[in-house]
């Protein structure tokens, strides 16, 4: 229907024309970049932009942000109270374990689930390009019947630190994980005023900081599990998580090896992981110090006991001056001697601890579980589960104790002979026992006068 309006005539309200067939028009598909989870109930953004009737609440997360986004830049948005969505037991780290150890299909499915969870952008991706004195950290919310809150604008200083308005002229930011503030005159304060520190913006920034710390911890734990199990990881997973700094840190400079169709490791195609590209493949630095691209659909981060020419790789990272985000090349390893017929190792027996609680504390501090008087370490090795057990005592926590034998059991807790223990399980069990034994009480003998 065409309509015309005479010059100077008052504007008329549009008349809705009813039709037998109603077409439902959805909201504009503009997504909010800044938030992974809804803001807290007390946030003005939550009251205005993310109401039940607002499509913004249903918006899907964007792709991972640039690795250049920093913690301080992530703090630019009020709509990023990420701590309200702190990772749960169903987080990527918890899902990293394959359903059936040794199964290539289960490993691929597991790694794919990790990618889907990890691909949700951390709030650090909220910062945009580096040009301009000020940046808008979120796009406009879709059209809604409710009035949407204005986008949060933060000023970025020369050091790249984003400052967000906290009310009454004050500005706040996060620097090295610490809340900092400026007064209305723009002067940096030595401490954050109480009214600013107790405000909603400060709460959201601190919640964001806590979430990022937990996110980094889970990413590192997941990659560590990939290494301990030499798990085959699809290249698509690495592509999905590489842009996230929390994932990049433990992945970068790890020794990776191409995985063949039958699940084996191709030692000729190995290198320090330096990046991934959809077209070129997996970027590595080989043992000769040359850059190369591995055209493979899956890679593994092998346990150091399985890495050929381990000493050569250790020398390479030293020459390049690079550090690994996980304990791989410089991890303590113990090769299993051939021809073992015993059922346990007595090398670490009779380690004296003044109190059992000292041995328990040492074991737990190293990340080992204690059960039934044993420090335990469960390992997936060559498709089978083996658990190393090292006796540390089961008496009163304040009583003296002495360590016992190191042994291994299978998934059904049946004792294994040393000849049946895989190289990874043997190495990790020896590493556990030697680390705890090193904390024993060493008796000092006085030299004869």
Strand content: 15-25%
Taking Cα atoms only, what radius of gyration do you get, to the nearest Å? 28 Å
SSE class: alpha+beta
Uncertain segments are 1-107, 114-151
Mean pLDDT value: 75
What is the first-to-last residue Cα distance? 115 Å
Secondary structure tally: strands = 18
**Sheet with the most strands, sense and barrel status:** 6 strands, antiparallel
Shape: flat
- Helix share of residues? 10-25%
| Order of H and E elements | HHHEEEEEHHEHHEEEEEHEEHEEEEEH
- With strands numbered from the N-terminus, the spatial order across the biggest sheet is 6-11-7-8-9-10
Helix count equals: 10
Molecular structure report:
The protein has 449 residues and is an alpha+beta fold. It is 24% helix and 19% strand. The chain has helices spanning 44-48, 71-74, 104-118, 194-197, 200-229, 235-241, 245-251, 310-320, 356-365, 423-437, and strands spanning 134-136, 153-156, 162-167, 170-175, 178-182, 232-234, 255-259, 265-277, 281-285, 291-294, 298-300, 344-345, 352-353, 369-371, 374-381, 384-391, 401-402, 406-410. The strands form 4 sheets. Strands 6-11-7-8-9-10 form a 6-stranded antiparallel sheet. Strands 1-2-3-4-5 form a 5-stranded antiparallel sheet. A 5-stranded antiparallel sheet has the order 12-18-16-15-14. α3 runs parallel beside α6 and α5 packs parallel to α7 (245-251). It is flat, with a radius of gyration of 28 Å. Mean pLDDT is 75; it is low at 1-107 and 114-151.
List the helices and strands and how they pair.
Elements: H1 44-48, H2 71-74, H3 104-118, E1 134-136, E2 153-156, E3 162-167, E4 170-175, E5 178-182, H4 194-197, H5 200-229, E6 232-234, H6 235-241, H7 245-251, E7 255-259, E8 265-277, E9 281-285, E10 291-294, E11 298-300, H8 310-320, E12 344-345, E13 352-353, H9 356-365, E14 369-371, E15 374-381, E16 384-391, E17 401-402, E18 406-410, H10 423-437
Helix pairs in contact: 3-6, 5-7
């Amino acid at each position: 229907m065409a309509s015309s309006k005479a010059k100077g005539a008052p504007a008329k309200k549009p008349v809705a024309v009813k039709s037998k067939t109603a077409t439902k028009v959805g909201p504009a598909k503009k997504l909010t970049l800044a938030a992974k989870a809804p803001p807290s109930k007390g946030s003005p953004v939550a009251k205005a932009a993310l109401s039940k009737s607002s499509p913004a609440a249903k918006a899907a997360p964007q792709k991972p942000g640039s690795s250049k986004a920093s913690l301080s830049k992530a703090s630019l948005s009020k709509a990023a109270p990420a701590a309200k969505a702190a990772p749960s037991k169903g987080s990527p780290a918890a899902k990293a374990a394959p359903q059936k150890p040794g199964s290539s299909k289960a490993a691929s499915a597991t790694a794919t689930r990790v990618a889907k969870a990890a691909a949700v952008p951390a709030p650090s991706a909220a910062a945009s390009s580096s040009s301009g004195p000020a940046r808008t950290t979120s796009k406009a919310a879709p059209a809604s019947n409710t009035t949407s809150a204005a986008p949060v604008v933060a000023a970025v200083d020369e050091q790249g630190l984003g400052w967000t308005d906290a009310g009454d002229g004050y500005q706040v930011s996060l620097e090295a994980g610490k809340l900092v503030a400026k007064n209305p005159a723009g002067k940096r304060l030595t401490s954050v005023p109480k009214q600013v520190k107790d405000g909603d913006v400060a709460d959201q920034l601190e919640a964001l900081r806590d979430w990022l710390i937990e996110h980094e911890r889970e990413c590192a734990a997941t990659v560590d599990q990939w290494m301990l199990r030499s798990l085959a990881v699809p290249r698509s997973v690495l592509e999905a998580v590489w842009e996230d700094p929390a994932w990049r840190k433990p992945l970068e400079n790890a020794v990776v090896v191409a995985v063949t169709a039958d699940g084996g490791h191709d030692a000729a195609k190995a290198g320090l992981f330096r990046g991934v590209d959809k077209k070129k493949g997996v970027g590595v630095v080989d043992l000769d110090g040359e850059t190369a691209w591995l055209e493979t659909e899956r890679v593994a981060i092998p346990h150091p006991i399985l890495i050929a020419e381990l000493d050569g790789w250790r020398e390479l990272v030293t020459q390049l001056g690079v550090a690994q985000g996980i304990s791989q090349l410089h991890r303590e390893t113990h090769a299993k001697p051939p021809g073992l017929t015993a059922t346990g190792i007595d090398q670490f027996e009779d380690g004296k601890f003044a109190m059992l609680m000292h041995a328990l504390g040492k074991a737990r501090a190293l990340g080992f579980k204690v059960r039934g008087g044993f420090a335990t370490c469960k390992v997936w090795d060559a498709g089978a589960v083996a658990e190393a057990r090292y006796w540390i005592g089961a008496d009163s926590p304040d009583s003296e104790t002495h360590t016992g034998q190191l042994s291994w059991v299978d998934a059904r807790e049946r004792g294994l002979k040393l000849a049946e223990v895989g190289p990874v399980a043997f190495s990790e069990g020896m590493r556990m026992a030697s680390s705890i034994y090193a904390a024993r009480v060493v008796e000092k003998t006085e030299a004869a006068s």
